[in-house]
Amino acid sequence: MRIVGHRLPANLVSSTSLQRLLPARTRHLCRLGIERVGFDQKMAPEIRDREVLEKMKTAIRKDGPSKLQVIADFDATLTKYWINGCRGQSSHGLLQQGDPKYDNKRQELYDYYHPLEFSPTIPIEEKTKLMEEWWGKTHSLLVEGGLTIDAIKKSVENAFIAFRDGVVELFEFLEEKDVPILIFSAGLADIIEEVMRQKLHKSFKNVKIVSNRMVFDDNGHLQAFKGKTIHVLNKNEHALDMAAPLHDHIGCDGPNGDYSSSVKKRTNVLLLGDHIGDLGMSDGLSYENRITVGFLNDNVEKSIGSYREAFDIVYLNDASMWGVVDLVSELCSHVD
């Protein structure tokens, strides 16, 4: 098997060791020569404090997979930031209602509120109210505009969105090890699920989505939203009562279940995000060890300093997920 790039950082397991740890299907794909982005010097991550990182990895390995959970942002973390040189769409941005009037109204809301989201002068309490206002108005437009299940499917089908290389293998490995993956998103769970169905062509029993979920009538028309609104400033473990497994299809009222108590017993966390604010996804969780991985997709020179201070590991320039695959294989390996 030929791996593109061959120099691995010392703290990552070898590709041979990784193949022994991966599920059979993934090993088969590797033997078939599916291209894998290797870890040459260009792709090596930035490490904040290697000694501290190694201590956390050792502690997590000693506790075993039963104490580990993975928390991940969706857009530009699990998905690519760039696709063939063009900016990929977000799960929320890809949605087309089928009525230009309502699509334009949602765009107007974005143009007004998005700068406020990143304003350094607005107090957090006021900003939280603004985000609740933005999400509420957007959700009302989706209902008023008659969003349908068919429109969601068509939007995803025509969307410019793709998962990072290695995401499927990451999900497969964690599923085999019975490690839960909580995908946190301020977007729409139904769209995220449809993206996974159309782009990954499979489901994973260990994946739960914490996001805004829609309620449809028998004719497939949006009627309302379930539960409390999840926006960019409350996208954390306090919203766990909104967690739900992947549904078989849009509009399927699958089981929700109480994941809060079981997840909180897993006191070791691997957190994946593309914004420093994503570190708040573990707020409300009492963890013993937390390894944070940041994907710095753009404006590297401007942001590398703050990302290096915030995250334990930083991957640059819209990197693949293979580094995280190697990391979790190490975290789930036995301590000699």
TrEMBL record:
It is an enzyme of class 3 (hydrolase). The keyword Signal does not apply. Pfam families: UMPH-1 (PF05822). It comes from the Eukaryota. One of its GO terms (biological process) is nucleotide metabolic process. InterPro entries: HAD-like_sf, HAD_sf, Pyrimidine_nucleotidase_eu. GO terms for molecular function: 5'-nucleotidase activity; magnesium ion binding; nucleotide binding. It catalyses: a ribonucleoside 5'-phosphate + H2O = a ribonucleoside + phosphate. Its EC number is 3.1.3.5. This is 5'-nucleotidase. It comes from Aristolochia fimbriata.
